[in-house]
């Protein structure tokens, strides 16, 4: 795999990313409604028309059908191809940044999971247990795998750091949320946020948990400020999950530059 030329490597990741993005669309659409992601097969939400194989090709089918169901002509949201293109772009970016390392698989699985979580959180203000709980377990399992080949590990961190990271991720936000509720009587963050950050700790370790809170506070704070300045009122509910996800993802790919900037502050 180390001998694959970079353009082929990236093109392959792009195709994989499109197909995964197509699957993430199903996850994003069905998980918040507690529907199975395996059954029924892809169909038009309006008329129930089962998608034929050629109607289920990422991005291309949507373009070929002009964004409409072939049966009832109901328009199909541009969100579908957008998620497929975004997934492909992020997949290629992760591959380009990390290269053909053994923990590339872990990096991609983590990226896809937090992307689905973020989109669902933005749309439905929900960080689904159906993704975060298996995500925590999978991260811990990957950290165990690194015991076999410590030199080129399949995970970013070993099991000790992963377990500490999981506890630190859940516990730190729980403390913040409990203190906030005690001071104000209001609920700021939900349990889904605790579990998302526990998942970050399971995959990337406790150091990344701390930096993720820092980055999410800055980016989330900046967006909240823009909301206030734009006069949208003080009573908007802003999901925190996407900012945690973004912070963790940036730390996964560019830890040194971010820590350097942080230390210089
Ligand atoms: Zn239809």
Order of helices and strands: HHHHHHHHHH
Number of helices: 10
Helix content class = 55-70%
Which secondary-structure class do the elements indicate? mainly alpha
Bound molecules: zinc ion
Ranges where pLDDT stays below 50 over 5 or more residues in a row are: none
Shape: globular
Query: Biggest sheet, open or closed, and with what strands and sense?
Result: none
- Please state the CA-atom Rg, rounded to the nearest Å: 20 Å
Report, as a whole number of angstroms, the end-to-end distance: 40 Å
Description:
There is one protein chain. The protein is built from ten helices and no strands. By secondary structure, the protein is mostly helical. It folds into two domains: 1-100, no CATH class; 126-265, no CATH class. It is globular. The termini are far apart. It binds zinc ion. Zinc ion binds next to loops.
């Amino acid at each position: 795999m180390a001998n694959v030329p970079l353009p082929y490597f990236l093109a392959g990741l792009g195709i994989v990313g499109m197909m995964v993005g197509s699957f993430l669309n199903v996850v994003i659409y069905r998980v918040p409604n507690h529907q199975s992601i395996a059954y029924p097969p892809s169909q038009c939400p309006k008329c129930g028309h089962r998608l034929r194989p050629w109607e289920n090709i990422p991005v291309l089918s949507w373009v070929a059908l002009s964004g409409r169901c072939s049966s009832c002509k109901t328009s199909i949201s541009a969100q579908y191809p957008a998620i497929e293109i975004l997934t492909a772009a992020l997949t290629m970016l992760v591959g380009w940044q990390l290269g053909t390392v053994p923990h590339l698989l872990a990096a991609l699985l983590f990226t896809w999971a937090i992307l689905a979580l973020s989109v669902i959180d933005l749309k439905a203000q929900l960080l689904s247990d159906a993704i975060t709980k298996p995500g925590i377990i999978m991260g811990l399992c990957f950290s165990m795998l690194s015991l076999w080949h410590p030199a080129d590990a399949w995970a970013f961190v070993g099991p000790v750091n992963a377990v500490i990271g999981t506890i630190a991720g859940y516990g730190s936000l729980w403390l913040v949320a409990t203190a906030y509720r005690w001071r104000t009587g209001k609920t700021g963050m939900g349990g889904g946020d605790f579990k998302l950050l526990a998942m970050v700790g399971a995959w990337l370790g406790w150091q990344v948990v701390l930096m993720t809170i820092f980055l999410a506070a800055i980016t989330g704070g900046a967006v909240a400020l823009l909301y206030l300045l734009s006069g949208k009122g003080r009573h908007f509910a802003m999901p925190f999950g996407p900012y945690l996800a973004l912070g963790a993802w940036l730390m996964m790919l560019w830890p040194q530059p971010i820590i350097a900037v942080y230390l210089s502050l």
